[in-house]
Amino acid sequence: MEHILSLLKRRIIKVLFCGDSGVGKTTLIESYKNMQFIPQRTTIGVNFATFTNKGYKVLIIDAAGQPRFFPIIRRMSILKGVDIACLCFDASRPETLEVLMLWKEVIDIWCPQAKLLLVACKCDLVPMDELINMAERAAARLGCIKIYYTSAKELKFDNLFEELIKFR
Question: What is the CATH number of the domain that holds 30?
């Protein structure tokens, strides 16, 4: 029985999407799930989403970005066991990168084994040459192993969701 539970647990990938309020985390997730652009309202607390990829169940934890929810989220046990943390920022608002250092501190405490991915949202709003330089510097500072350039509006996900199972 314990072997079966162990096998089931290995087939679930727990992914945290975090970042400042309004960067596009929820819109990105919902647009991918529905394969159409679906603008979202501000997340209150935490949202959850799931999908299956190559036999793996991917559980997405979509954390609210507003500062008033930050102390609650970082104390929640849902962060324990996160396999991958997607640190999301708004490509058109470079200041949203600063909040990611706070999230990294929380991740280092609650799920230090999590692999960090940098996700640039709303890439349709800025020139890519400027964005790539900024994102590469941020990824190095945060210790991210890969950068994804996305646009929910244009349904460009840069293979982010398909590649999550690679990082389990």
Answer: 3.40.50.300
